[in-house]
Design goal:
about 260 residues, alpha+beta
């Protein structure tokens, strides 16, 4: 008997295998390196995993908070999987028995869901199409996933993929309830990430800003005043204004409005 339950219908808005050229799907299936694997074959060493977890610490914290709120509102057994941009699992939220069952099949933090490591699944298809996708039951390459329905979507920040989130549940449950739910959840998560220091730091690295200029730019994104930043950083207001001029010049904007439009819209 499945550990999952029943669901309800909403509207349809996704990509799935029926939208694709069968030759493309066949090519992806052939790229799977472990066709005889009964369990997920690839999982990182603890040392490699710790590096990835540290690199994605802020993403994990925000995702954990937002998904935990949604988790309590879903009336069927389910599992949220959060991955990094390469499809490596970095966090799970779900019922204990589902997580335990997944771990028995080597599905845990550090497990790779990329197509070459796990065949076609929700996360690998979202990675290929860079959009919200649905993979149902027998559409999965690996036997382990064939009693799962999966809805997956990228988390995008400033035209950059920050990771992926998958919502999985039993094939007995209609997938249509999960698509708008996941999209709304990811939209909220992306808005929070836009205001995070980690994302801002990555953004500003493309513009050759100094560490101090990055700090001023991040404060400006948080709508802090020149006086507030001067007090926090222990420098004069004039120094902050001079740094802002350099930030504007390096990022190719002329005023605060353009700066916000470039990095927050």
């Amino acid at each position: 008997m499945s550990v999952f339950g029943w669901g309800k219908q909403f509207h349809n808005c996704w990509c799935d295998l029926s939208d694709l050229n069968p030759c493309t799907v066949e090519t992806w299936n052939k790229s799977f390196k472990y066709p005889n694997a009964e369990h997920m074959p690839i999982r990182l060493s603890m040392q490699s995993l710790e590096l990835i977890l540290d690199r994605n610490k802020e993403f994990i914290e925000i995702a954990t908070h937002d998904l935990s709120l949604v988790y309590t509102e879903i009336g069927v057994p389910h599992l949220f999987i959060v991955t990094d941009p390469n499809g490596t699992a970095i966090h799970f939220i779900g019922q204990t028995e589902i997580i335990d069952n997944a771990r028995e099949n080597n599905v845990d933090r550090g497990t790779s869901f990329a197509v070459e490591c796990a065949g076609i699944n929700g996360i690998s298809l979202a990675m290929q199409l860079q959009s919200t996708v649905v993979v149902q039951g027998a559409q999965h390459t690996m036997q382990f996933f064939k009693d799962w329905n999966c809805v997956s979507s990228p988390v995008c920040m400033f035209d950059k993929i920050y990771g992926y989130i998958d919502l999985s549940f039993s094939t007995d449950v209609d997938v249509t309830f999960a698509v708008p739910l996941l999209k709304k959840t990811i939209e909220k998560l992306e808005n929070k990430l836009k205001k995070s220091r980690q994302v801002a730091s990555v953004l500003f690295e493309h513009y050759n800003l100094s560490d101090r200029e990055k700090e001023v730019a991040f404060g400006w994104l948080q709508n802090k005043s020149v006086l507030q930043m001067a007090h926090t950083m222990g420098i004069t207001e004039g120094t902050v204004r001079n740094m802002l001029k350099k930030v504007y010049a390096k990022t190719g904007v002329n005023d605060k409005g353009q700066f916000f439009m470039k990095f927050l819209v």
